[in-house]
Amino acid sequence: MSNKIVLSIIIPVYNVEMYLRQCLETILRHNSEIQYILVNDGSTDDSLVIAEEFRKKYKNLSIINQENKGLSAARNSGIKNAVGDWLYFVDSDDYVDNKFIENIFNFVKENDMYDLISLPVIKVSNYKQKIIQNSNLTLNRDEYTKLLVLGKRQFGVWSCIFRKGIILKYNILFEEGKLFEDQYFVPVYLKYVDIVYHLNNRSVGFYYYRFRDSSITHSKISREKIVQKLKAEFFRDDYLSCLTNNTNIKRLINTNKLTLLYRAYINFIKIDNISEAKEIKKKYFQILINEQLAFRWKETVKTILMFCPISILKKNLGD
């Protein structure tokens, strides 16, 4: 690859033989200014066979083989081997629109004044949920944070393009050994962001995030997953709160914590862990009492349900 690398695309792979071909067919392009790094994280199925098949066709695709260390470690390996000015993370069970990669490449090649580029996403599960960006838009960090807290933008790293210089300068890596790793990575990166650019979905297309019930984070709930999810999301919200002086955004973040606690409360009841459900309930009402909150109707409903006896909730959840 003689040309200067503009964009490095990092694809962690672990036992995704059912989805990998579609992913690679949609993202790979014969472009010497794009570097593709596929990190095989100890796959035991035919994922590596499929990856090798594509490596023979694409000179700008390299494969890193490592023992299974988890998604964070695989992404970190990709970061260490990336040489592009911009980094983009693609999950190997996802896919993109036909011209998506060309469009985002052309944009980052021609625009160098932004710190973070936000991308349009479609969540694919039993139905498609679009994160639509109807217009090209420049936002400051507070404006973008507000959209994240309101759920109008995704925390998944596949929904953004990151500047490698910021990642290297401040040694921003993924937390290894933890689930919900994006919740730790994105807020830390945002600390060093001044300008975010939203790309219009009409001009670039969509990234299709495949929501799989069998994935590690979405499979059957357990105490460990409830605890790790709540810990990651509270880290995220606390970190974002420290990054802003905007009172309204801080109130929104505290209100969002009620949603996080409510979800954990219900999940603990589902697995019949009543003692920890009671502890969550205490934290919920502590925040409710101590903070000035930006209440929406959803929070009102959740608060009413939190007043219900656990025995009644447990019976209804069981039904």
Automatic annotation (TrEMBL):
<dbReference type="InterPro" id="IPR001173">
    <property type="entry name" value="Glyco_trans_2-like"/>
</dbReference>
<feature type="domain" description="Glycosyltransferase 2-like">
    <location>
        <begin position="8"/>
        <end position="134"/>
    </location>
</feature>
<protein>
    <submittedName>
        <fullName>Glycosyltransferase</fullName>
    </submittedName>
</protein>
<dbReference type="Pfam" id="PF00535">
    <property type="entry name" value="Glycos_transf_2"/>
</dbReference>
<dbReference type="InterPro" id="IPR029044">
    <property type="entry name" value="Nucleotide-diphossugar_trans"/>
</dbReference>
<keyword id="KW-0328">Glycosyltransferase</keyword>
<dbReference type="GO" id="GO:0016757">
    <property type="term" value="F:glycosyltransferase activity"/>
</dbReference>
<keyword id="KW-0808">Transferase</keyword>
